[in-house]
Amino acid sequence: MGGVTQRPTMDLLRSEPMQLVQLIIPVESSHRSISYLGDLGLFQFKDLNSEKSTFQRTYATQIKRCGEMARKLRFFKEQMTKAGLSPSVRSAMSDDVDLDNLEVKLGELEAELIEMNANHEKLQHSYNELIEYKLVVQKGNEFFHSAQNRAAAKQREVEAQQRGEGSIDSPLLLEQEMVTDPSNQVKLGYVSGIIPRGKSFAFERILFRATRGNVFLKQSVVEGPVTDPASGEKAEKNVFVVFYSGETVKNKVVKICETFGANRYPFTEDLGKQYQIIAEVSGRLEELKTTIDVGLVHQINLLQTIAYHFEQWSHLVKKEKSIYHTLNMLSIDITRKCLVAEGWCPVFATNKIQNVLQRATVDSNSQIGTIFHVLLTKDSPPTYFQTNKFTSAFQEIVDAYGIAKYQEANPGVFTIITFPFLFAVMFGDWGHGICLLLAASYFIIRETKFSTQKLGDITEMIFGGRYVIMMMALFSIYTGLLYNEFFSVPFELFGPSAYGCRDPSCRDASTAGFVKVRATYPFGVDPKWHGTRSELPFLNSMKMKMSILLGVAQMNLGIILSYFNAKFYGNELNIRHQFLPQMIFLNSLFGYLSLLIVVKWCTGSQADLYHVMIYMFLSPTDDLGENQLFFGQKFLQILLLLAALVSVPWMLFPKPFLLKKQRVERHRGQSYALLDTSFDDSNETELHHGSSSHEEFQFSEIFVHQLIHTIEFVLGAVSNTASYLRLWALSLAHSELSSVFYDKVLLLAWGFNNIIILIIGLFVFICATVGVLLVMETLSAFLHALRLHWVEFQGKFYEGEGYNFQPFSFASLDTEDE
Fold first, then answer.
1. What's 42's DSSP letter?
2. Stretch 424-431: mean pLDDT, rounded?
3. Quick check: helix, strand or coil at residue 686?
4. Among the residues of 587-698, which ranges form H helices?
5. Distance (Å, rounded) from C-alpha 170 to C-alpha 617?
6. Among residues 32, 25, 82, 14, which one has the least CA distance to residue 48?
7. Staple 387 to which of 233, 272, 353, 392, CB 3.0 to 4.6 Å?
8. In this entry, which stretches build a coiled coil (predicted)?
9. pLDDT value at residue 640
């Protein structure tokens, strides 16, 4: 028996049996015990120190240390990303690394990397400055060389004019100027540098205005981008030389250069010194380039070493941090030198947890073992379903509506079949189903590769629901065979059609002239219905009635599941005064309608079911006439109508008054408690007494709640049944859209007998089929099937007020965001 209880039940209908457990762990083995429980991943800890802040807890210092190591690892990852490296996934995951040694090692690596980065920045800054200095010297050399050439040419021109004969038109001032003593000429100063090209125009205007035009600016465009020493970013720049006269103007020029972020560099007029400076700068640049390259190689080697161990270190830091977070949730008993933990675990995991705790005691050389004690509690346990990669996606569809209460009937069991089936009813086309199946098969075949990759949001969502898409595709192929539609084209897959021509003249007829010549088509819709004048009325009638049958069946399933919930929880009141009247009301009206549909199909009657249902309420005693489907129908209708009317007050009144009676009796029983009960028992009795009195006082609230519930069910029975008609509407829309794309695009292009038009038509047909029918229609049918499950089906029995079992596990550490 013990072996049987230790295995998981894998029962999706009811969540796993849970138990509240108290662990008394010696301090010396506490860390290893929590670590082993994290490896096992089957124990959810309760926070016993919720009244304390984060900084008041025992292991706040250790968590701070782990946080600091995590910061260093993030710094390493940033550096690896900049260098184009990624963490190695082949690094061995070993637990031999000690946290203290790792902390020291990470500190040393961080200091070394920071020093490398600082040296690299200084060298790179010097390198960029020398590049700019070299450009300034080269461009300045060009300025002065061209200016000297122009001055020499001007001098020669003046001398030639002086040697010639003087005339009345000769510029006297020029002659006077040229014969002036050179010692009396004004000496101009200059400032040279480099400025971003985008600021050069504004720089020139500000210079002119600030100096009132008493400067001369010369600029030259630098070909190609230049790296700025300050920001390290590449930008288009211009070399400039500003000529001025006077110290005041010089100060203004210098301030304007600083304001515009222009980098100033010294410059000499001596041509020999210019070439000497260029040679020195070029040599210095080569030395800096070699030094920078060597430093980068050393940095890359260091980062490669870090990258090899990065995953191991990161996992260890996350693991230690989560362990100390968990230890902070435990209560410390100083006198006994132990930690007290409480939490939930599945019953089947009892032996596993005890074995793990015993192993932790042995490995930590503790003299005292951990005490495992099951507690009795009235708290609601968490909900835990053991799912696999196939059932997890269907369970997530249910959990998106609400987490099941502890051991509440789980709609996920039925959703595995009903959800893809209702989707397929709206999406019935076995050609489109095959396309969906191929897409799902691609993700299923490559799931090992995709599961280790970082996918986009949409791709990850599709990959997570690959088995849901596969089931939807399989059911779509099935319903497509029932509807006999392959991209809206019918096929005689299961034998010849039951209909044929009355005579040879109607061989090509599509609207008249068919008679039944052989047995009924064995499976699905007869292919001869396609293209006939009565195709749409026939399919409309069939799909509408089929939608009602499916809807009533699923709503009945929901109400039946409410019976199993009430039976499981021992709530006889809900069985007698909720389940029974709900079943009677729903089936007296819409169950009877479903019966009429089946009888009409079986008998081939021409009765008008709209007329039957409407006059069942308006004139229940009138004769049915030609709308009578079977003997005794009138009497049955009156009986069902009375049953539906009786079921409404049956749902409304008995339950609130019986709840009130039960509470009064419970209160009276607690008033006569035994005298020899303990003090704790008397306190508990007083507590129940107070709560009972309070609940009794809320009778009006209970009655209003029951009234709302009754009205909601009565009106919902009508609206929910009508809601299932979306199955008919979307199925019709999908079929007609597919038919339009085939007839008006593909066949129309085929009729032109032109290969180019045929290729264009085929391309448009494929795009329309994929974009509209395989993407938009798939999403539409999915959302409608989701609504039918959440509202019409789960609303009948599913409360969804539980909370998930979230065990402490290291398996989830790698999936968490940084």
1. -
2. 94
3. helix
4. 592-603, 609-618, 633-652, 654-671, 679-697
5. 125
6. 25
7. 392
8. 99-126
9. 94
d(CA 59, CA 199): 57
Residues 6+ apart with CB under 8 A from 57: 49, 328
377 vs 515, which has greater pLDDT?
Answer: 377
Segment 103-132, tens digit of pLDDT: 999 999 999 999 999 999 999 889 988 888
Q: Can you spell out the DSSP letters for 206-228?
A: HHHHHHTT--EEEEEEPSS-EE-
Residues belonging to the chain: 818
Beta-sheet pairing, 216-221 with 237-244:
antiparallel
Contact (Cβ atoms closer than 8 angstroms) between residue 199 and residue 263: no
CA 497 to chain centroid, in Å, comes to 49
Mean pLDDT of 391-410: 94
Report the greatest alpha carbon distance in the chain.
146
CB neighbourhood size of 720 (10 A) = 23
Which of 220, 275, 221 is CA-nearest to residue 242?
220
pLDDT digits (tens, 9 = 90+) for 203-246: 889 888 888 888 888 888 888 888 888 888 888 898 988 888 88
Token duo for residue 469? 């898409």
DSSP reduced 3-state for 408: coil
Q: Which residues are CB-neighbours of 760 under 8 A, at least 6 positions away? A: 749
Beta bridge partners of 234: 227
Residues 431/423, Cβ–Cβ less than 8 Å:
no
Residue entry with tokens 């009301």: 585
What CA–CA distances, in Å, run from 628 to 242, 597, 620, 622, 624?
Answer: 109, 13, 13, 11, 5
Two tokens at 644? 């539906």
| 598-620 confidence digits (pLDDT tens) | 999 998 888 888 888 998 888 88
Q: What is the pLDDT of residue 174?
A: 47
Give CA–CA dist 556/550, Å, rounded.
10
- The Cα–Cα gap between 577 and 595 comes to 25
> Among 46-60, 336-350, 678-692, which stretch is predicted with the lowest mean pLDDT?
678-692
Contact 158, 319 (CB under 8 A): no
Compute the distance between CA of residue 639 and CA of residue 637 in angstroms, rounded to an integer: 5
What residue type is 528 in one-letter code? K
Distance CA 242, CA 218 (A): 6
What pLDDT band is residue 513 in, cutting at 50, 70 and 90? low
pLDDT, position 111: 94
The torsion angles phi and psi of 170, rounded to 5 degrees, stand at: -70, 140
Strand-pairing partners, residue 331, are 340
Say whether 193 sits in a helix, a strand or coil. Answer: strand
HSE, side-chain direction, 13 A CA sphere, residue 230: 9
